[in-house]
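Slide 14.
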Amino acid sequence: HLLREISNAPRKSPVQIMEDMSWEQFSAINIRAPELPGVTADMGEVRVYPYGGAFAHVIGYVAKVNKSDLRPTGPNSDPILLNPGFRIGRQGVEQAFDLDLRGKPGAQKVEVDANGHEVSTDPAGDIKAIPGKEIVLTLDADVQNRAMEVFGDESGAAVMMDCRNGDILCMFSGPSFDANRFVRGLTVAEYRALATYDHKPLFNKALTATYPPGSTFKTMVALAALENGYDPRTVHVCNKVWFWGGRPWHCDEAHGAQDLKGAIATSCDIYFYQCALAVGPDKIAKVARAFGLGQIFDIGIPGQKAGLVPDTAYKRRTFPKDPVWHPGETPSMGIGQSYLHLNPLQLCVQAARLGNGRKALHPRLVQSIGGVAQPSGAAFGDLPCANEHIDFIRNAMVAVTTTGTGRAFGDLGLGDVRMAGKTGTAQGHSYHGGTGVHDRNGAWALRDHSWFIAFAPTDVPRYAMSVLVEHGGFGATSAAPRAREIMRVALLKDPEIRARVEKPMPMPQIPAGPGSGDVVPDLPAEPVDPNATVGTGTPT
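Slide 15: predicted structure.
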């Protein structure tokens, strides 16, 4: 490897043969410098990531320059790239803003002899370096680190946004990796272990991975229904199975007779099969896209996958041999399955727009570049839905965490500050033929995906989030409890919410007893000596 680097290096360019030397090694090289022509020990710089695992996917890392990075012209033709200690941005913010962060290298004008030893300097000929720009992100280190803690070894993602301005406070993908190891360079064995692990630690699941949204999508089906004249008092009866189109359609429980709000709270599949049929795929897709689903957002870093919100035009475009949207495809769409697949960032945008209730918020990750503030995520207009219909969905999400499938997670342990949400369980595989298992009842790779979207506080939403636990089973099993813990950190860091939680306790009431009266006793006429004895006893 070292010989290859030496042979590939341009003539007269130094090649790094060792790094992270101890002071003893550094001293030994310098002492023996006359005996080692062409070898020098020098001080260098290295990028250090204090929270290497929590931020690895979003911030990325820097790594050594390779041949493919070099260009004959442009910024990547700069001779600084040939310096053996130079690193270039890979993945995330480091890659997207590499040139901004890099700045412009300076130079010193020196005279050297035939052996390359410095003879004299010419400060007048020096070129001043231009420092790189400071990139400030909206992420909150405490929230991000808490997400990493609660995920542990699980695979998935958590994204949190401010409901008022779209700022992203958390964008975690797990399991993660230590970005500092990439700066120094991984061994072949280390990289192979990361690349072959079935939980895919190198994959940014917050942006790049897409999944069926499961029952979290029922909020969009319900909103589309309301926007198109559906009466929320409409009742459907769930007996755990519903026969339609020559086949049975199933639900996890027999929920009985329910209206729209109750069906959202209990996440009744049979209700939403029929609700989706009443609305149709095109109207559902239109509302879903208005809430950020199936979209790519300009957050400054690469890697987003748009996923898919299907409609009849998609079917015609993609399946020329069978271009018709069949009625039997609509019920599956009604419960967040079918052709639907979305990423956790989009589900967070959906939750944030519901939490805001009025603005079509866009996520913002980069707060400022070189001191220049980036546009707020609230500057993108209003939501194209009636206020009363959005409020209906918000109230139904409160019911989810009060009496419904997420009732164990509405209480955050923060007084009257509660969380609203919607659980989701998405099939990773078909249950037929032993290729998939419901909840967490079998092999990890065959289980359902666990979703939870939420906003809090329920009365004046500040923060919204989506949590995905890959193959985690029911939404209430894996995603919801993690969302609760992450949300608590954000709320406790908010000064206004904390003041609301930390209310002063009322003064205790002293019961009136016999002879106590209800008057304040007189002060003693003379000070009492605390060391004096009382009666004939001894001090204790």
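Speaker note: Confidence is low (pLDDT under 50) at residues 533-540.
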